[in-house]
Automatic annotation (TrEMBL):
Residues 1-22 are annotated as: Disordered. This is Uncharacterized protein.
Amino acid sequence: MNNYRKRIRADLTSTPKSDEGIPFSNRMDKARSIKKLKQALPITPNKRAAVLSAYVDCNRILKSPGVKKFHDSFEESVEKMAIRNIQDVITSVKHKRNGEAKAALNILTSSVSGENISDRKRATKKKTQTEVFLQFKNEYPDEKIGQRAFEKCKPYFVRTAQFKDKVTCCCRQHVEMRSLFKSCMQFRKRLLSREGSSEVKLYESLSELVDDTLCTRSANTHQHKISCLDRLCSECGVCKFSMLPGELDESDVQISWERYEYKNVKVKGDKMIRKLVLKLEVSLHVTILHRHSVLEYDGKDSTAEEPNIVTEQFFVISPDQKHDHHYTHCVQNLVSEYLKSINCEISVMHEFTDGCSSQYKSRHCMGDVSYSCSDFGYAKILRNYFETSHARGPQDAAGGFIKKQADLAVIRGTHVIQSSSDLFDYAQSNLSTTADSSKCSRRIFRYVDSVNRDRDRNFLPVKENRKIHQVRSFDDGEIFVRKLSCYSCQSCIVGNYSTCMNDAQLGTYNKIKMVKESEHNDSDADSNNDEGVDDETNICDFVSNGTIFAVKADDTDCPYYILRASKDPIILRKTATDKWGASYHQGNKVIHGYYFNTIDNNPFKLKLLKRIPAIVPALSVIYICSEVDIDDNGLINLNESLHGRILRCLDHE
């Protein structure tokens, strides 16, 4: 501390005597001089100020070197203070990202550089940097520059497209007026380049055109008069807008522009208009095809000795939002037709899918596999299932790429996509070809307006279908299933599945006969829903996570309850009590789930009670509601036919 004080004292007393700066040897000398000056000046403030002002401003006194140095130092200090203030403001503002800070920085910069900040350019990229670079290389092949160096040459006022660029004014009048103005100015530009006239002006914005038809703003305001804006002024108007003879000639080329049409959409609920406008419901089904190349189509041949595998991405776009086994069958049919159109002969089709029950793994989906050979002309078809939520792969990346490119096209304003057909047209015309470095040869797009669901392809349940991971077709209505797939032994690779060398680890194939519901009479179906499986199997064995089922109730007003299972049936290891107060002892087989409650006393309209879990005995299950679909809000709709079947099951209890 003592050393610090000595350094401060030394700095204060080490000021040299010179004509520049302070001429005092130390602060005490300066203080004594100021004290003598105060004693010599008048006491009253007014007289003291008058004396000092007269002394400084006197012409004879101004010749004094001391007074002159005082004036020079005063002016210099003001300039330095102003510069220091600007530096402090810029330093404190330039790192902030809010709008007010940026505006203050622009004002300070413009005050120094003289730049008009209102005319600053802003532009949004309509292409990616890679697309711009490739276009530049095509136009200037002699220029030797890399992509990274080329990207550094991007002007400062050009920015990438963002999501906010898509959210703009949806007023029909404003949008159509901008489109009309743009088309008219393009037409005028062509006329000016052809005729070379300078009588008219080429406007850059609609606001600039309107300003020319109004009176000039006054010097003390930036706004037009209200009478001019209402077109009540006699000195201005549309008459001030000059046009070329070619623009008034009706026999000349017509101008075309885009316009919007009203579309009435009825939506249940209380959704906001913004969400309704921005929401586009499109179904996109992705299939990754790996096949042998065809000489006539791919330019290369493929043989067993020299195989050449081609990878393709097959997309099916449809407005149909119901992803069920009928939709999947339609996609398989389109794939089969495409392979036949390019003369690609397929005898064995291997499918790898996820475990989605509605599309691939339900009893109806397995029934479709049993008839796939006769439907599509294959000699054999094998379907392999991934574990649940473990099927993320190239198909998800391919679908995400299509959605991302469509989103960017809308944001950049290059395309208008308002329906599934618009998405199909955009994708087919812009995304069919792939990059040379891509492992995918091409993208194939197909459009399906509607899906045929009037098919007799509803089947009775399959025992423990969630544990099956491979299905192999045999004859119509018959399939072979096993719990694991094998692609490692030589027998399975060549197609001799009956002699698999890994049966001890993977298990053997079990033959199952798929029975259609239409071939089963109502009485047998009501009394035994498990036909095609063992007689000892109970209906509760078909309940799994997510299954909607009916249980017998002791309530006289409601003979049965509808539940949704949250787990597979289990045997209790200890006594358990649910939130409804029902208790079950150790060793009982029960099902965990949630009840459905009626809405507005309507027995056919139910809503899931998600917050109150329930436990029911497994033996109380009387019916599996496989034909019931639940929406995102937990709502289901029953019908009288289903209600009657459940009641008939109760009568047989």
